[in-house]
Amino acid sequence: MPRETLKIAQRVESLSVLTPEGQVDRDLEPRIPDADLRRLYQMMLAARRLDERCLQLHSQGRLGTYAPGAGQEAASLGAVYALTPEDWLVPTFRELAAMLWRGWPMQTWLLFFGGFEAGNQTPQGVNDLPICVPIASQCQYGMGLAWGCKLRGQARVCVTFCGDGGTSEGDFHEALNFAGVYQLPLIVVVQNNGWAISCPRSRQTASATLAQKAIAYGFDGLQVDGNDLLGVIVAVREAVAKARGGGGPTLIEALTYRLGMHTTADDPRKYRTDEEVQAWQRRDPLTRFRTYLQGKRLLDATIEKVIDEEVDAELAAAVRDYEQCRADPVAFFQHMYAEPTPELQRQMAELRAHLEGSPAAPQAESAAAPQPRPPAEQRDSRWPS
Predict the structure, then answer these.
(1) Cβ atoms within 10 A of the Cβ of 223, count?
(2) Does residue 364 register a pLDDT over 60?
(3) Which residue from 127, 211, 242, 272 lies 20 to 30 Å from 150 (Cα-Cα)?
(4) 195 and 341 assigned to the same domain
């Protein structure tokens, strides 16, 4: 039998629409209403400001261990812009911009990292799962949702996220395998920020791209500049249209970078250089998109002032409401088992006695679930399109 090169039907492409300087490729520029472009900018700014505030709250002892996402806002926001409210989102812990766009209040984000159960409560009417921390487990959940949509005959899709480190987990490969076999309406977005905590991408895989891993599972892969909001929108729009039309899944590798630490328990100075960080700061997605809007005359000093004031007011209110929440520490014991074990009952009684005997013990009250904000596409714009 002669040796010959096999012909593989799948393809892997690379895409970018905005240059790092904010210049646009007119042939690839997506059609987006002017009002939406401004709202997208406001959502990226809100995510950045909330992210910065969370780091401050943590350093002051007012928030738990935090995973910052500055620098990665475009990859998640562009992905969910291509969705309808009926579609599904399965986020990791860095999709803050996406969750704000989908209608999650800032306060819920704070409650999650503050250790309140209410931080896991999805706003009513929003087809999202709450934040899930175990790496690449999101791919399994997203695959299951996509499978359910297909079994029910619903023209819905699911977008799920993981990081470059997640591509080394079995959950990632199992989810892609099922998605390919059953041609599920699933889009997996890998936020490739170059580092799985301190493990560089070069130690994760010898593949030239992460996008090409889709080929092994029988569907297309696409690598996109993850700091290019327009590029991500174009990429996910195409993937959503294909999935909704019965064309199956897509794997999208979004090349991006976390400008901060993996979490506040991490010191990135031990494994990456200042020069590397500075190079990526020049590719900041927020700065790039702001330059693009200024070039289209959709953003000026007056509009920016209005946006800044609205973001700051919403953030101040969210922090104020978050810090008024209290929780009964004894509640930690109450939902572990249907019937508490004798040891847990003893520990619970000991803790309650300690709290009741402490003059500084706070009055316990539950953290109320915040009222959801409507999805961005359902809010009126203050400026004409």
Answers:
(1) 23
(2) no
(3) 211
(4) no
